[in-house]
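Example 5.3 — Cellulase
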Amino acid sequence: MLEPASRSTPFGVAVSRHSWAGNSLIISQATAACLLHKHYPALVDTKYVFAGLSYLYGTHADSDISFVSGVGAYNKRVAYGNNRADFSFIAGGVVPGIRLLKPDLPENRNDYPFIWSENEYVIDIAAAYILYVVAVNQMTQ
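Solution (predicted structure tokens):
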């Protein structure tokens, strides 16, 4: 399951090819890899765990911007937040990420928050990200 997905891009993660950007999928797969590695370290390599963090923090197509606001040298500073339509910044907020426009053009505008499928702070993605980071932290101690 993890190997074919990790080979689908040069970044070691499976990127969504649908209209909604794919950070949710990346976080859930990396979290699963982290939990599987914890119980079956001989079967699941840590490269699957750290590829997700690397991607979220800026190793992806289009730019080197971190998808987690306030994390990394270059990060999302303009998003569509809880006040909607107000160029929000919420430290620790996670956005959906890069959207692939047909046929294969990556888009991730950092100056315009109203493209919600790329730049909206999403509560369930942020919660999944927190679980992922806690699991990685516990794994590395």
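Remark. The mean pLDDT is 81.
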